[in-house]
Amino acid sequence: MATTSDISRGLIIKLDNNLYSVVEFGENKTARAAAKVWAKLKGVDNNRTIEKTWNSGEVIYPVRVEKKAFQYLYKDETGYNLMNNESFEQISLAEEMIDAPQFLKDGSEVFVFINTETDQPIGAELPEKIVMEITYCEPGVKGDTATRAMKQATVETGATVSVPLFVDQGEKIRVNTKTGEYVERVKD
Q: Within 13 Å and on the Cβ side, how many CA atoms surround 22?
């Protein structure tokens, strides 16, 4: 049985028949009262963000989740269609279940989180950093690297990313999928 001492970032717990992922947590100790454990929780199946406080040592209900590699195939009216890399089984996920769907391109790898109690997918995320080709941006200015000036660039999936002025159309860049920010230029 799990208690509040087992809380960690990324843990998925069941609370009021909903699943929540722990975003942040901490402990408040005072000299007179018992310690309290607090957590900032993001809804896995309901898109809500809440804060919850427990007495130290109170029972929590973690949910066992498996992370499996899938391949993105295509998008249609049912959602984003993915294929399991091991069993070749196909599933369809709604857009709100995927972190950063704007960076999905055909054949890219996606990690799907599956609730082992129900065998149902509860979410998906892309690798932290991916390589994208710039399909359109204004011409760059060579040598303008002294300032942190940025310009908008459209990548191959249609998403826009802020890039430094020296990056040109047709170049490949590495993008952080968590923040949507430019990381670096990729040499072929």
A: 22
- Strand ranges (DSSP E) for the chain? 12-15, 18-28, 36-43, 49-55, 65-76, 79-84, 90-93, 109-115, 120-125, 129-137, 150-155, 160-164, 172-176, 181-186
Classify domain 65-125 by CATH number.
Answer: 2.40.50.140
Q: Which CATH number fits domain 4-55: 2.40.50.100, 3.10.100.10, 2.30.30.30, 2.40.170.20?
A: 2.30.30.30
**Average pLDDT of the residues of the chain:** 88
Question: What's this model's pTM, rounded to 2 decimal places?
Answer: 0.76
Residue type, 87: S
Parallel, antiparallel or unpaired: strands 109-115 and 65-76:
antiparallel
- Cα–Cα distances (Å) from 63 to 1, 15, 36, 45, 90, in that order, read 12, 10, 22, 13, 24
Q: Residue 82 burial (CB < 10 Å; 0-12/13-18/19+)?
A: buried
Residue 92's φ and ψ, nearest 5 degrees, are: -125, 130
pLDDT in tens, 81-93: 999 989 999 999 9
- Reference 162, options 152, 171, 172, 170; nearest CA is 152
Residue in the structure block whose two tokens are 């590495």: 174
- Give the tens place of pLDDT for each residue, 138-150: 886 666 566 678 8
- Per the CB < 8 A criterion, the answer to whether 72 and 107 are in contact is yes
